[in-house]
Amino acid sequence: MPSSETFRLPTHRRHVPAARDHVRKALADWGITDELADRATLSANELVTNAVSHCRVPDARVRVTLVLCRCELVLEVSDPDRDRLPVPRRPGPEEEGGRGLTLVGALADAWGHRQGPYTKTVWARFTLPPAETPHVLDRP
Predict the structure, then answer these.
(1) pLDDT digits over 59-70, tens only?
(2) Residue 13 region, left (φ>0) first, then alpha (ψ -120 to 50), else beta?
(3) Which of 13, 59, 77, 120 is the S-S candidate for 82 at Cβ 3.0 to 4.6 Å?
(4) Taking the CB of residue 89, how many other CB atoms lie within 10 A of it?
């Protein structure tokens, strides 16, 4: 059983469902199919949507990484538009968007972002319930 899964996709909204499906399959392969899978998949949906919607680098690709370590799942979504950092918004009731980061904050145990030399990464961490922890390999 792998302890990490990484895939890339073009920065276009039509690829968001594929990202969601890939995350759900990876989690199922690790034996995570419950409410945690729903929270992580929905968070991936929101973070990938933000990345493909706001990245202004032509012909860019978004990288999605899932890491399972001990009793924690980490989701990372990276794109090459390193200077456009995510900022939670307070959209009005009539606005259709702008709630993704607030939703990720409610679903994840923690979330944040970091800048690399050429990319930015937005991450979300989820604590595995004790019943799921034995399925996880303890790899570095």
Answers:
(1) 899 999 999 987
(2) alpha
(3) 120
(4) 13
- The answer to whether 49 and 16 are in contact (CB under 8 A) is yes
Place of tokens 């918004």: 89
57: Cα separation from own chain's centroid: 20
Helix (H/G/I), strand (E/B), else coil: 63: strand
- The whole-angstrom separation of Cα 128 and Cα 117 is 31
Q: Using one digit for the tens of pLDDT, what is the confidence trace for 79-88?
A: 999 998 888 8
Take residue 106 and report the two structure tokens written for it.
Answer: 């409610």
In the chain, DSSP assigns E strands to: 4-10, 61-69, 72-79, 110-115, 120-127
In the numeric block, the tokens 């200077």 are attached to: 83
Strand, coil or helix: what is 27?
helix
Structure tokens that stand for 100 in this block: 């993704």
> What global pTM score does this model have?
0.88
Residue ranges, the chain, pLDDT below 70: 1-2, 95, 98, 131-140
pLDDT at 137: 46
Domains detected in the chain: 4-135 (3.30.565.10)
